[in-house]
Amino acid sequence: MSQNEKNAFAIESHSIDYVDPSERHGKVRDLFTLWFCTNIAPLAVITGAMSMLTFKLSLISALVAICCGHFFGAAILALTSAQGPQVGIPQMIQSRAQFGRYGALLVVLFTTLIYLGFFISNIILSGKTLHTVVPAIPVPTATVIGAIAATTIGIVGYHLIHKFNKIGTWFMGGSLLIGLMIMIPHINAEVLAKGSFNLKGWFAMFGLCAVWQISFSPYTSDYSRYLPKSIGIYKPFIYTYLGAALGTIFAMSFGTVAVSIGSTTDAMEAVKSGTGLFGYVLMILFLCNIIGHNAMNLYGAVLSCITSIQTFAGQWMPSKNVRISLSIIVLILATFTALWASSNFISFFLNVIFALLFILVPWVSINLLDFYVVNKKSYDIPSIFAQDGGIYGKFNAKALIAYFLGIVIQIPFLTNAFFTGPFANIVPDVDISWVIGLVVSFVVYYAFNLGKIKCNRPAFNANA
C-alpha cells in the first residue's frame, strides 16, 4: 500500500475485495477509539433516558442494567470484530463461508435495509440538531448538509472513518465527562428515590443494551480487516470490547443522569438544562458525532449492497468507483426520503428495527460458532468469491436450517410494538425471545457440525 493510500483523506481503493497481507497496516488500539466515539451519540443518550422515562427504573438499577447489558452484548460484537484481521474481508461477504454464496443473500439484504434505515434516521436527526445549533439554517437545508457531510466521509472510507473517531474520542469523551461532573452534584436523595427496581424494566433495559451491541455485528470486520493478521484474536477483541461497551455505557448513563435530575421528559432538553451553557457545546459535538456515526452507516450499507449485487455477477469484482457511485445514489435517495418522512419516522423506524432484530440473532450464533469452532478461524478466501461458491457451495443447508429454526422458535415468545406471541409472558414481563433464538441456533448448528468440530486440525488454509 502506498503512503498516499494510507493518508486518511485518500479515497479507499478497496470495496468488498480481499485486503492482501502486503497492504495490511494500522494499530489495533484504533478499534477502541472507533467503537468508543461512535457510540457516544445522541441516540444512545436518548436510549439511556428510557431506563427511567419508559421503564421507570431507579437511577442505580438503571445504571446496573445498562452496564450489564452492554458488557454482555459487546462480547458478541468484539468476537465478530476480531475476525477482520484473520479474513481480510467485510463481514457480510464473509457470511458466504457460513451460508453459501446465495444462502447468505437473505442476511445481507436484511442488513442493508437496517443500515439504510439508520442512515436515513440519522440524516433527519443531524438536520434537526444543526437547526438547533444554528436556527438560521432551515431544517431541510440542515438535513441536506448533514447528509452530504456523512456521505463524504463514507466515500473516503476506512481510514478517514478511523481518523474521525480517533480525534472525536477526546472531544466527545472529555465533553461528556465535563457534562457529567456538572450534573452529579444535583444527584440527591430525592433523585435517588425516583423510580424503583422492577424485573420487567430491568430486563427490558438489559435486552435493549445487549441488542444495541449485537446490531453492529454485521459490519464490525469492515473496520478491522486492514489490520495485520499477526495481531491475532485477543487484541482486536479486547480493544473493540472495551471501546464499544464503555462508550455506550458512558453515553446512556449520561442520558439517565440527565433525566433523573431534570423535570423534562425530553432527554436532549434535559441534557441542555442540566449542563447549562455547556449544553450548547455538547449539541455541536453531538452534531459532529451524528455525522461521523452516519458515515459508518452509509459505508456499511453500501458494502452490504455491493455484496448483494456481486452475488449475481460471477467473478466481477466491484472497484472503488462502484462504491463511490453507489454512495452518491444512496445519498440522493436517502435525502429525499428524509425530507419526505413524517415527524415520527425515527420512532417508527426504531420500532420496526427492534421488532425485526430477531432475524439477526440466529446469524450471530452461526457466525461465531462457524468461525471460531467449526472452521477454527480459517476461511478459504478464493471460495468465498468463487462463482459456484467453491468449497462452501451456493447454499449451506445446515446453516440455513439452524438459522430458520432460530427465527421460528422466537416467534411465540416475541413481544414488540407490532406483535405479541402466545408465550411472550412465560417469564412475566420479560422478553426472552432473542435469548431463545441465540441458544437454539447455536445448539442446532453445533449438533449438525459435531463431527467436524471434533476434528482437531483446520479443514483448510485461508490463502488468498
Characterization of this structure:
The longest helix is centred in the middle third of the chain and has 34 residues. The protein has 22 helices and no strands. Helices cover 67% and strands 0% of the residues. It has a domain of 318 residues: Hydantoin permease (Orthogonal Bundle). The protein starts with a helix and ends in a 10-residue tail after the last helix. It has 464 residues and is mostly helical.
List keywords for this structure.
disordered N terminus; Hydantoin permease; 0% strand; disordered C terminus; mainly alpha; 464 residues; 22 helices
How is the topology of this model organized?
Elements: H1 3-6, H2 30-39, H3 42-53, H4 59-81, H5 84-87, H6 91-94, H7 96-99, H8 105-133, H9 139-156, H10 158-183, H11 189-192, H12 199-214, H13 234-261, H14 267-275, H15 278-311, H16 320-340, H17 345-356, H18 361-374, H19 381-385, H20 397-408, H21 433-448, H22 450-454
- Give the overall pLDDT as a whole number: 87
Major sheet summary line:
none
Number of beta strands: 0
**Radius of gyration, taken over Cα atoms and rounded to an integer in Å:** 22 Å
- CATH homologous superfamily caption of the domain at 25-342: Hydantoin permease
Transmembrane segments: 32-55, 62-82, 102-125, 137-161, 167-187, 199-218, 238-262, 274-292, 324-342, 348-369, 400-420, 432-448
Subcellular location: Membrane
InterPro entries: Pur-cyt_permease, Pur-cyt_permease_Fcy2/21/22
Organism: Acinetobacter vivianii
